[in-house]
Amino acid sequence: xxxxxxxxxxxxxxxxLFNTYRVWSLIDARRRGKLPAKGxxxxxxxxxxxxxxxxxxxxxxxxxxxxTTPIKAKKDIxxxxxxxxx
Length: 86
Known about the structure:
With 86 residues, the protein is mainly α. The protein has four helices and no strands.
């Protein structure tokens, strides 16, 4: 039982750290001027991030724009990335 609780606590800690990193990266990108203010991002910003090689930020902005899950956003971003490279 102790192993189960320890595993659950570690899993929760990892999830919290992951979400903290995602939020921090968005705040940092906005501070550096790579992203517009929250709620003002557009698909042009997503394209621009992809062209700069910031795929992770592009996924997060896409999630913010369309209110989708990160998994669906990543799939859509990969499609967009393939269409941009053609």
